[in-house]
Write a structure and sequence with these properties.
The chain is an alpha/beta fold. It is built from 8 helices and 7 strands; from the N terminus they run E-H-E-H-E-H-E-H-E-H-H-E-H-H-E. The protein is 44% helix and 17% strand. It binds NADP nicotinamide-adenine-dinucleotide phosphate. The site of NADP nicotinamide-adenine-dinucleotide phosphate has 30 residues, from helix 1 and strand 2.
Amino acid sequence: MVESKRALVTGGSRGIGRAIALELAGAGYHVIVNYLSGKEAAEETLAAIRESGGSGEIIGFDVTDSKAAETAMETLLFEDAPLEILVNNAGIAADGLFIMMPESDWDKVVATTLKGFYNVTKPALKAMVPRKRGAVVSIASVAGIMGNRGQANYAAAKAGLIGASRSVASEVARLGIRVNVVAPGLIETGMIEKAPVQQIKSMIPMNRIGKPEEVAKTVRFLCSDDASYITGQVISVNGGMF
Ligand code: NAP
C-alpha cells in the first residue's frame, strides 16, 4: 500500500512514544512504531492506531545498534512513500549518584539517546534532503536543561541531544527540513514508576504530573506545517518548571 505521508517514532510502543504514534496517526500519517523488546506493546499500539481509523506498522530494532538500525532504515526508506517525520523518542534512564555510577550505566543511557540519534537521524535526513521536506523532533528532558541529582548520565545525554539537534537544524534549515526538541518534565509513564513523585510534584508550579498526550500534541504541532518557521528550538512541556 502506498501511503502519502510516513512518520517513524522510535520507542513508539509505550509511554510517550505510544501517545506520539497515536497523535501522528490521527494527523493522517502512516506511523512506523519502533520498539526494542516489547513487541506485544508495539502490536497493541498499532491496534489502537487502527481502531481509531489510522494506519501504521511495527518495526523492532535497537537504535544503539548501528548495523541493525542501518538495515531497518534501508528497508523503511526503500518503500514508495517518503519518510516525512522522524521522532527520536527512544530513551532510557539508569539513575544513581555520579560517584557510584557504573560505567555501563553511563554508556547505555548515553548510547540510547546519542548513538540512537546518530543511527536513525542520519539516514532519515539523507532521504529527506532530496525532497527538501521533512521534520525531526527529538525528546530530551528538563534534566538536559537544568541537570538533576542522580541523573548525570541522563542529563548529559539529553543536553547532548539538544546540542546535536540545534547543530543539525542549522545545517539543514536551507534544505527545507526542520529539527526541533521537546523537553518534557515529569510525565506519567513506566519510566517514573520509581521516582519520588509526591516530592517532585511540589517542585512543579502546576502541582501535577504531565500526561503523555500533552507531550504528543506538542510534537504533532512541531511536525506540522503550522510550525513552518520553527527550527532549532527546544520546547519545554513541564508544568512551568524553569
Ligand atoms: P518508557 O515508557 O520507558 O518507554 C521507552 C520506549 O523506548 C519504549 O518503547 C522502549 O521499547 C523504547 N526503547 C528503549 N531503548 C530502546 C532502544 N535501544 N531501541 C529502540 N527502542 C528503545 O519511557 P517514556 O517515559 O515514554 O520516555 C520516552 C522518552 O521521553 C524518553 O526519551 C525519555 O527519556 C523522555 N522523557 C520522559 C520523561 C518522563 O517523565 N516519563 C520525562 C522527560 C523525558 P521497549 O518497550 O521495546 O523496550
